[in-house]
Amino acid sequence: MSLLNTKDGYGALTKVFHWTIVALFAFQFAAAHIMLRIGPEQTALGIGQATYYNWHKSIGLFALAVAVFRLLARTCGRLPDWAPTLNARERRFVHRAEQVLYAAMFVMPVSGYLYVTAGGYGVNLFGVVELASPIGENRVLAVVAKWTHIGCGYLLLLVLAGHVGLILRHQLLLKDRLLDRMLPDSRVKTSAGPSASG
Ligand code: HEM
Ligand code: HEM
Question: CA distances (Å), 120 to each of 3, 77, 117, in order?
Answer without folding.
Answer: 42, 40, 5
